[in-house]
Amino acid sequence: MSYAVKEMFLTLQGEGIHAGRRAVFIRFAGCNLWSGREQDRTSAICRFCDTDFVGMDGPGGGRFPDGAALAETAARIWGDAPREERFAVLTGGEPMLQVDDGAVDALHAQGFTIAIESNGTIAAHPGIDWICISPKAGSEVVQRRGDELKLVWPQDGMDIAALEAWDFANFLVQPMDSDAREENLTSAIAFAMERPRWRLTLQTHKMLGLP
């Protein structure tokens, strides 16, 4: 299987439990909850996405013919830093539209710990080391266990009690990045204050001007 990748780059993880950790981000093209075209946003299941995942024209992006090529590029981007610290974040779009044995096995062979950021509508590959699921209201989430449940807030129609019954080690709430960001931040803080099980997470990479 070949892989369509929008971009691949070295940065610091900006969100969640691993915030501040050096990582190679592999952003796969395509999503099953929105086409990525602005004209389709109002009819999409996920209407608040703030990421460009269309095409393969970003830095480090392209069509990779197999898992080995994908992983070798990730290793080259990681550079000379210690191999035992290698950390790759598979994101999108929706990475599980493409992630398979070939990609996972090749990244592991290059020494990477693999994290994924997914909407949870497709079961995560069992070989992934760290699973972060960000559920979207109106979608059918099948991946109901993992390491992080990251709720972008606010979202109308989200059953919080149902989410809390899922098997996740960490429950995170993140204010939605929109024109109402200040109101969303206030609402997310109130959410975490009212529900001690949840922790507030912020998009620190945007604050720092990182990709």
Automatic annotation (TrEMBL):
Gene Ontology molecular function: lyase activity
The protein's Enzyme Commission number: 4.3.99.3
UniProt keyword list: 4Fe-4S, Iron, Iron-sulfur, Lyase, Magnesium, Metal-binding, Queuosine biosynthesis, S-adenosyl-L-methionine
Pathway field: Purine metabolism; 7-cyano-7-deazaguanine biosynthesis
Reactions performed catalytically: 6-carboxy-5,6,7,8-tetrahydropterin + H(+) = 7-carboxy-7-carbaguanine + NH4(+)
Residue intervals passing through the bilayer: none
InterPro entries: 7-CO-7-deazaguanine_synth-like, QueE_Cx14CxxC, rSAM
Domain Radical SAM core residues, every copy: 18-211
Cofactor(s) it depends on: Mg(2+); S-adenosyl-L-methionine; [4Fe-4S] cluster
EC category name: lyase
Residues reported in the UniProt entry to bind Mg(2+): 51
Binding site for substrate: 12-14, 27, 91, 211
Record: residues binding [4Fe-4S] cluster: 31, 46, 49
Binding locations of S-adenosyl-L-methionine: 48-50, 93, 134-136, 174-177
Record note on cofactor: Binds 1 S-adenosyl-L-methionine per subunit. Binds 1 [4Fe-4S] cluster. The cluster is coordinated with 3 cysteines and an exchangeable S-adenosyl-L-methionine.
Function: Catalyzes the complex heterocyclic radical-mediated conversion of 6-carboxy-5,6,7,8-tetrahydropterin (CPH4) to 7-carboxy-7-deazaguanine (CDG), a step common to the biosynthetic pathways of all 7-deazapurine-containing compounds.
UniProt record similarity statement: Belongs to the radical SAM superfamily. 7-carboxy-7-deazaguanine synthase family.
Quaternary structure and partners: Homodimer.
Protein name, as recorded: 7-carboxy-7-deazaguanine synthase
Taxonomic path: Bacteria, Pseudomonadati, Pseudomonadota, Alphaproteobacteria, Sphingomonadales
This protein's encoding gene: queE
